[in-house]
Design goal:
Blueprint lengths: L2 H26 L20
Length: 48
């Protein structure tokens, strides 16, 4: 594996990850993992 292959691989992995993270942050307006409905608040109940 040469350097250009490594750079290409890093870009292909990092760019979508950063864009997805940024998009989620923008959509939420909050730094939480929850897209809208609470999945599990730690109290044990699972909400659909």
């Amino acid at each position: 594996m040469n350097l250009s292959d490594l750079i290409t691989m890093v870009i292909l992995i990092l760019v979508p990850a950063v864009v997805a993270w940024w998009w989620i942050q923008k959509a939420n307006g909050t730094p939480t993992y929850r897209p809208g409905r609470p999945k599990d608040d730690g109290k044990g109940e699972q909400q659909p």
